[in-house]
Amino acid sequence: MLYCGHMRKTEFANGEFYHIYNRGVDKRDVFLDDADYQRFLLSLVEFNCIEPIGSLYEKYLRDKQASENGGSTSIGEVEPPFSQREKLVEITCYCLNTNHYHFILRQLEDDGIKKFMHRLGTAYTMFFNKKYKRSGALFQGRFKAIHIDSNEYLLYLSAYVNQNNFIHGLGGGDWKYSSLMEYKNLHNGNVYICNVKSILDQFKNIDEYMEFLNVNALYLKNKKEDQKYLLEEF
Residue 68: its pLDDT value, please? Predict the structure, then answer.
């Protein structure tokens, strides 16, 4: 696990980037099939708004009613990237692995990260527990958060998060539950999650970024135990 500085209680500031991560309780898998991943990805979009939406099902019923009354929204038709929707956070990178997740988030509103992560964790736990007939906590305590205090570290972390599946031996750059697909403009769905500009605008083109990413991801995969940014691994 990567980190910068000492672990401590994080105070979130607007405009700053943070590495957010957590894993399943007892290291259990929290994504058991494609539908679980897709539900979580959809939640990343739908719960990232200033005004609470309730549950995804409640939103679906409201959107259905709006559609019947002449509107055009539905649970499957979310906004395009970089829209004017008022968001709690800007999602820069993400990766969902079988038993844990990683995000890079930039806070846009006061307490935006806390509100977003609370909604996300609560809603997904309820969905997962109902689907798999279980009860209790799904994730290991509160999410972990580390302030990204330099641009160098932001770029380095983008490689770590975008190819976190590769670092953990879950395949290469075709992992459809990672934001790398959006960075490579290979996303074939209609749910856009990330603002990739804060990273890609620092490179001449996607090829230059991919070279940077691949070199660093391979280094992390092979030298994890020696990295100065390592914490206890998932």
Answer: 45
